[in-house]
Write a structure and sequence with these properties.
It contains twelve helices and eight strands. The protein is of the alpha/beta class. The two termini are 45 Å apart.
């Protein structure tokens, strides 16, 4: 038989606790909660956050801005996994003494002087605004859209904090990397989870997986290639799909990036209806002394020129927005390598950036990953 006295006591205790903090059992609404004590903090209207994430950018191209940015980037164990005792003295005493000057000069050559920011920052802002508009049309004020950077500003923790303060009880975290890699997607997710660990009222969370094989993404890539081809009187001999590189060792340790890059190229070729020898996969941005994924773009384009391929186009399907690796490395360093080897026509096809077809693809990925939260 139930004990009526105990039941009554338990009911009273529950009611007392509920009255003390109604936020625990009442869905948050705008302002102070109904029946809450006068000193209870206001609770914002419940929303769902969509937090876009990209690699990052220095605040400026001067020495100290570059040093801060490179120190954070190159100290990430996902990027450089050497033991700290071995890597940090080399980084702090040698690399960060010299590299801020060379990297700063590279950034200076592409800097958006009007906005006083890097092109990656400018483009990410444009992408965020376009996606925010799409989400507003689709979900109204239920969804908050913002962006953060893994390195530099705006930081991931600051944007997670802002979303929690704005009432986001759920956050969809979207690393803007079509292909997944430990040094890109995984480290962005690490930073996101670390930021969540600081929150007392922790929102529910989801992360968006790689989207390299999503039909709308492949369609957007194909459209960008077709536009470039249609604009040229003399067509290129072939298309080079240049992806950011990584140590070959990472592939052997199980990183999926290399395989996803190869599949991206194949899906793009199939969508274009091209033969296999019309498009090739290469890897750029080699760093350090160990072997990276091959072929290296900067070397291979020179080999192509010497072999008689005098006209090439280059696309960068691993980058969602133009940045230092595309605007400076591809369109300057890699182009120079090709031309010095005898190449005659080099065309860089820009990243998808805020092209409508790209925003369509990213919005579709977001909507798919919001299912069950917002339908």
């Amino acid at each position: 038989m139930p004990d009526g006295k105990n039941d009554a006591a338990q009911t009273h205790a529950t009611a007392t606790a509920s009255a003390a903090c109604p936020a625990h059992h009442v869905r948050p609404g705008e302002g102070r909660l109904a029946h809450a004590p006068a000193d209870h903090p206001s609770v914002p209207k419940a929303r769902t956050g969509v937090l876009l994430a990209n690699l990052g950018t220095p605040d400026n191209h001067d020495y100290w801005s570059m040093r801060r940015y490179l120190n954070e980037f190159l100290s990430d164990k996902r990027v450089i996994d050497y033991p700290a005792w071995k890597w940090q003295p080399l980084l702090q005493l040698v690399i960060l003494t010299k590299r801020p000057f060379t990297s700063g000069a590279a950034y200076r050559s592409i800097w958006n002087n009007e906005a006083n920011e890097s092109p990656l920052m400018t483009i990410t802002k444009q992408q965020t605004a376009a996606i925010r508009e799409r989400m507003q049309t689709r979900y109204g004020d239920q969804v908050m859209v913002d962006f953060c950077m893994r390195y530099g500003n705006p930081s991931t923790p600051s944007k997670v904090r802002a979303m929690v303060e704005a009432g986001c009880e759920r956050i969809l975290f979207f690393p803007l990397y079509p292909q997944s890699a430990g040094a890109t997607t995984a480290t962005a997710n690490d930073k996101f989870f670390s930021a969540l660990a600081q929150e007392k009222w922790q929102p529910a969370a989801r992360t968006v997986p790689a989207y390299f094989d999503q039909p709308l993404y492949i369609e957007a890539l194909a459209q960008s290639v077709q536009r470039a081809w249609d604009a040229m009187e003399e067509k290129p001999d072939l298309l080079v799909a240049s992806y950011h590189g990584m140590p070959k060792r990472y592939l052997l340790e199980g990183d999926p990036y290399h395989c996803q890059c190869q599949k991206t190229t194949r899906l793009l070729r199939e969508r274009l209806g091209w033969p296999e020898d019309r498009i090739i996969t290469t890897f750029q941005s080699v760093f350090g002394t160990e072997e990276w994924l091959r072929p290296y773009t900067v070397e291979h384009v020179a080999e192509l020129a010497k072999a008689g391929k005098k006209r090439i186009a280059v696309i960068a399907p691993a980058f969602s927005a133009d940045c230092i690796e595309t605007l400076e490395e591809i369109n300057e360093e890699i182009k120079e390598s090709f031309e010095h080897a005898g190449g005659e026509s080099f065309t860089y096809i820009p990243c998808l950036n805020d092209e409508p077809a790209h925003i369509d693809a990213l919005s579709a990925v977001i909507e798919d990953n919001l299912k069950g939260w917002l339908d």
